[in-house]
Amino acid sequence: MIIEAYSFDFDGCFANYDYISTPDKNRSIIKSNMDLIQHIKKSKNPKIVFIGSNRQSLLDDRANSTADNRGSCYLGLRDVSRKIGAKFNSFLMADIYNDLKEGTTFDQALTYISKKTGLYNEKKVSKELSNFPNWVHDESKMTLIYAQIHQLAIDHPHDQIQFHFIDDKEVLLNALHEYFNQFPELIPKNVTLNLKTYTGPTDRTGKPVEQLFKAYNPIQGTSEVPDYDFRNSVKNMAAVAIESEPYVSSQNSPTNITNFDEAKKYHFDISAINVLKHYKPGMTPKFPADDTTITTKKGKEPHMVKTTKLSLFQQGYSESKRSSSNNSLQESRPKSDLTQESTEISYDQPKLRPWYQVFDNSLFFNRKALNEPLEKHEMPNNSTPDHS
């Protein structure tokens, strides 16, 4: 079966010129994007809608909702999904960074939004600012796409997925297209990445646009299996970027943020990073993300394994490759180097079965060569800030 997934940006995209130029009382996110909605509805394939905006936390959504009274993108894109007749996926990046169940951040945000105005209850929010889950703001949106496509591939292993990422920024999409063209192994093989530029039905003068959207050449994924531990992979991709960016700051810290643990200490309230600029497949941070719990398989039952501070950029392989590489890798290192598994504590998500082999401070996995180690990430020397 073919599944069509759509990840929609909001500011400048669905909240476009037509939308923000319409008086508040007459505004409709549906009317301002009806041409695109009708285009998408022509297909009879089942559809899923994601939030492709970088409003990936309640605090981000709240901050941008007041600009031109655009309102919450959570409500807006949920309404678009309903109009399309799609399944709405409320998974946000703040769920990843705070180890929350998918949709937790979204559901929390809804309790602070006025159904009448679509804006946040400022009095209520201001009392609890320190309690809201945050995330490492990746301005490149690479980690956002990575998380969404791998979640899709895990949920739909036997389907062909057409993943449409729609944004208004050509510079951002150009960079993403070049990046994933270079590294299609970051995309599961049953996923095709389709990038599209969309700014609404009219230009800044109110004149109808000649072309509703611009489509980039599709990119077919090549990874044999999805990344079952994509949550931890995303954290460590961000960790690489934090270590590489010369000036990552937090208003609550007197010094620059230099690693993932420091970012977490300040509740990820740090300046934006660009993961696409700094991360390449195979890199691991010097200081990996915090301890993580992942689902694997022991005997006939799935169970949870607690790992130390390691990058688990997991890749799966056939049982034969898994077995042979596991044996060869264990022979190459002392048994004392292997991370110990924890007690069984969970029996959920029985389909998840990642393969990995963990050593002291590095992870060995095999995309191509069975015993080729991950490239260790190094901090750049004499780095200078990029203000472009």
From TrEMBL:
<feature type="region of interest" description="Disordered">
    <location>
        <begin position="315"/>
        <end position="347"/>
    </location>
</feature>
<protein>
    <submittedName>
        <fullName>Dot/Icm T4SS effector</fullName>
    </submittedName>
</protein>
